[in-house]
């Protein structure tokens, strides 16, 4: 084994040596007016990159649409080995539709809501050249925005060819140009510092991970694997939780202002104009609790704009909560509104706070909804860039994101000296974006010479057992991208041999894309992994597969792991995706054999209540096959399948899908919804049915395209 690894290492070294002299290209895409106003600073940035070995090309013009930009980037990629780009100023924004499966959670109804609201602003249009789109036209109000629909014959998975970032001012005209000039000036100063990534703060806001302490505590372990040098001195790594103090805002601001702060990670809820740090704090004593409740009632009443509806709501609350009208006193007086507003401001960071804070964290990651929504004139991630401090890069999401999303995959690459762009290129989803300079990197402590462009299997195999967990995870990711033929067994072997939480998580992420029982077999063990996030996601995947072999595991987790709030929640979420009769019988069996519970009938009643609740949701989906129901009700029921994979009804769904007498809108919606059954034990039947429809030229083009797309989406998970 030693000789084999030595040979692989020598091969890798020789391949890297051969590639060392390859020119590295980078594109600075800027609109003509911004370039004219900020030429000296942009050229200074270009010169800096050149001094670091990155041949940067400034391309300044009036860009009419995203395709014009993409075509230029693609030509550079083919002829000059382009590795990344930054979009400075007013660069067209691609608004992506019909690609919600490429996001983590975004499922807004595209029929009900406007194009602007129900599309995803995404630079994957630019940095993944394989994705194909149909052009739907520009926005009627703002020519910067252009709408695109993901084509049926496009790849149905993101794999970025280059990395990218945006430097978009949050002010107009000369003020905006001044923001860009100031940004590049501080960027050049900070990049001269050759700063190591060894000061980190992570903040977990209210509502993240269901406020689970078992979920929160594992982050310290994960960060120690990825940023070991940050743990060598006191006060360099902090993990803050929303309930440590009634209001955490002041403490968070102190951390952001620390001159030495390198990385700040926010797990929180968010909007373009706000970070939600805490909710209403717990109050001590009857008087304080009463005032807290009154503030909540006043706030709720203000949100009802119609006077008649407001009065109805007020009466309803008074009757339901057995309170009188004094609980709403002052709701609309200027004095009380100001007082309530000041208390509300203490629960989060808003746009106006950022220039006052002057954040110094060099890189800020927003694991939150909408903080990176650059379709807005002003947005949180952008304000951090121009807020007067030393923040150089923010990483945020342009739409809402999944609560159970891993936010630190491969992040150890940053500590090794990889650029933010090189890291993000490996983990991007449709909505994730670098705001700022994507070439920014910390000084690496132990970074070996790694050729990220290598397509040699042997090269990446040489890193599988590297001492750095981040490089092990990166190697697995690269081997997956290169379709290494022995990948499933390598992943399984790695899972059972690796001591690293982060490497085992990579195994979980990647193994689900393969046929056979590799993944489902792994779940029987990974559902009890020491890392809570792996447990959480493994239980979720049991429901998405829907095999009854998981029933004993789901029941065991429900009975024994109830302190893991997110794991427990995912177990209950699986109930109606399995055979509920078998589930009920297994629960009775395990409960009877359990010696820990003294009041077993109470536990049985709670289980039955949860099961009946899930069954009622399942029954709502029966409208899909009920021709007596209205079309609107049936289509509405179809949309439930995106989050609820009812495997046992797939045959009935396919009957509706194939039935030409059914309304075409219902069939199209059903084909789209079945595309979410990516790891279902019934997926082969779905793919077969969809391919049959797609191949039938007598069918309408609309249903053929959606059926083709459905099959392609599922086949991404059938390597």
CATH architecture of the domain at 462-620: Alpha Horseshoe
- Report the sheet-strand fraction: 5-15%
Query: Which term fits the overall shape?
Result: globular
Question: So how many helices?
Answer: 30
Q: What's the gyration radius in Å?
A: 27 Å
End-to-end CA span? 28 Å
Largest sheet: 6 strands, mixed
What's a quick, concise take on this entry?
The protein contains 30 helices and 17 strands. Strands 10-9-11-15-16-17 form a six-stranded mixed beta sheet, sandwiched between helices. It has a four-stranded parallel beta sheet with strand order 2-1-3-8, with helices on both faces. Strands 5-4-7-6 form a four-stranded mixed beta sheet. It is globular and about 70 Å long.
């Amino acid at each position: 084994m030693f000789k084999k690894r030595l040979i692989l290492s020598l091969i890798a070294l020789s391949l890297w040596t051969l590639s060392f002299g390859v020119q590295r290209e980078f594109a600075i895409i800027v609109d003509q007016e911004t370039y004219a106003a900020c030429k000296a600073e942009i050229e200074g940035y270009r010169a800096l990159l050149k001094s670091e070995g990155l041949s940067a090309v400034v391309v300044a013009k009036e860009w009419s649409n995203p395709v014009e930009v993409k075509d230029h980037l693609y030509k550079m990629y083919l002829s000059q080995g382009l590795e990344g780009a930054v979009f400075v100023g007013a660069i067209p924004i691609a608004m992506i539709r019909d690609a919600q499966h490429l996001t983590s959670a975004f499922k807004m109804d595209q029929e009900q809501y406007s194009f602007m609201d129900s599309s995803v602003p995404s630079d994957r249009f630019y940095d993944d050249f394989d994705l194909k789109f149909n052009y739907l036209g520009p926005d009627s109000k703002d020519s910067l925005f252009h709408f695109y629909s993901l084509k049926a014959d496009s790849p149905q998975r993101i794999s970025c060819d280059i990395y990218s970032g945006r430097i978009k001012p949050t002010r107009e005209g000369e003020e905006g140009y001044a923001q860009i000039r100031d940004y590049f000036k501080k960027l050049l100063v900070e990049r001269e510092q050759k700063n190591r990534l060894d000061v980190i703060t992570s903040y977990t806001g209210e509502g993240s991970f269901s406020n689970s302490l078992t979920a929160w505590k594992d982050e310290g372990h994960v960060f120690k694997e990825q940023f070991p040098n940050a743990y060598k001195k006191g006060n360099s790594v902090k993990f803050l939780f929303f309930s440590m103090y009634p209001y955490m805002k002041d403490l968070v601001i102190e951390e952001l202002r620390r001159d030495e702060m390198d990385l700040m990670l926010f797990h929180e809820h968010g909007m373009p104009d706000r970070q939600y740090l805490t909710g209403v704090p717990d109050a001590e004593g009857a008087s304080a609790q009463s005032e807290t409740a009154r503030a909540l009632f006043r706030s709720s009443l203000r949100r009802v704009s119609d006077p008649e509806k407001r009065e109805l709501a007020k009466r309803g609350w008074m009757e339901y909560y057995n309170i009188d009208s004094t609980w709403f006193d002052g709701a609309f007086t200027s004095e009380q509104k100001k007082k309530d507003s000041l208390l509300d401001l203490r629960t989060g960071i808003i746009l106006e706070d950022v220039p006052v804070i002057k954040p110094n964290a060099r890189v800020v990651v927003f694991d939150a909804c909408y903080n990176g929504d650059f379709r807005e004139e002003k947005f949180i991630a952008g304000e951090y860039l121009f807020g007067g401090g030393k923040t150089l890069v923010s990483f945020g999401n342009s739409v809402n994101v999944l609560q159970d999303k891993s936010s630190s995959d491969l992040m150890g690459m940053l500590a090794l000296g990889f650029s933010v762009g090189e890291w993000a290129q490996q983990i991007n989803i449709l909505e994730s974006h670098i705001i700022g300079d994507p070439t920014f990197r910390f000084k690496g402590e132990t970074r070996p010479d790694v050729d990220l462009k290598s397509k040699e299997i042997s090269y990446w195999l040489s890193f599988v057992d590297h001492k750095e967990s981040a490089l092990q995870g990166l190697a697995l990711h690269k081997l997956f991208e290169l379709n290494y033929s022995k990948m499933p067994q390598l992943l399984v072997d790695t899972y059972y041999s690796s001591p690293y939480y982060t490497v085992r998580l990579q195994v979980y992420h990647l193994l689900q894309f393969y046929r056979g029982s590799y993944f489902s077999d792994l779940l029987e063990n990974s559902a009890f992994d020491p890392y809570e996030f792996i447990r959480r996601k493994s239980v979720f995947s049991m429901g998405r597969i829907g095999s009854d072999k998981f029933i004993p595991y789901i029941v065991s987790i429900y009975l024994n792991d109830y302190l893991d709030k997110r794991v427990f929640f995912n177990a209950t979420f699986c109930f109606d995706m399995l055979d509920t009769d078998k589930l009920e019988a297994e629960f009775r069996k395990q409960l009877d054999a359990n010696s820990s519970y003294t009041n077993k009938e109470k536990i049985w009643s709670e289980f039955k209540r949860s099961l009946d609740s899930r069954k009622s949701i399942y029954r709502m989906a029966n409208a899909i096959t009920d021709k007596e129901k209205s079309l609107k009700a049936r289509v509405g029921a179809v949309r439930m399948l995106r989050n609820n994979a009812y495997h046992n009804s797939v045959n009935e769904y396919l009957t509706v899908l194939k039935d030409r007498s059914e309304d075409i809108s219902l069939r199209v919606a059903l084909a789209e919804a079945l595309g979410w059954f990516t790891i279902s034990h019934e997926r082969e039947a779905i793919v077969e049915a969809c391919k049959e429809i797609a191949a039938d030229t007598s069918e309408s083009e609309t249903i053929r395209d959606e059926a083709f797309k459905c099959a392609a989406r599922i086949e991404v998970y059938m390597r």
